[in-house]
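Morning run. Coffee first, then this:
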Amino acid sequence: MSSYLADNRQRLIKLIGQISVDKQPEGWTHVASIAVGGLLSVGFSRKGAYLLVVSSSGRSVIYCKTGEKIERDYDECAGLIELGLHCQGIGVIRDEVVALCGISGGGLPLTNRAGEGLEVVSPEWPESHLILCKPFKSALMPGHQSDCKIIYTDHLRAYGFSWCGNYIVAACGSDLDIWSRESEL
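And here it is:
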């Protein structure tokens, strides 16, 4: 590795080291940590505070305000369409096709209407840090670190804001965490 690349890598690691870990960042409430064996993908409903979770043993719907599992089926990979990037909802969101983020790719919003952003850094790959940044701040910009918080560290499989911007999900292959904005957008 050239000296420039090595120096830049050390500079970035130093910036990341200045960011504090906070599972309850200002303005957000950590709602739940939920075990999900064989987690494949997650996706937010556009019709309400619901998260669709797709695993190797079926689908679940989580109510994001409480972290409660309100729907469940056990059909392996039922409802998956378009290479696993979308899935038919169940229960309260049965009439909705939900965009997914997870093992097959896809994505969820990385910013919300308030200007907050989510960034992923992996200085100790394969483990990654999910960082919540205050409006128009960035974890890798010098001077912005106090406006950013590491909210999740694991082998990230899926992460993002809900479509309304009031919820965040972070997931690995065995569990997920949900946050709720204290004041809705």
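The chain has a mean pLDDT of 95. Good start to the day.
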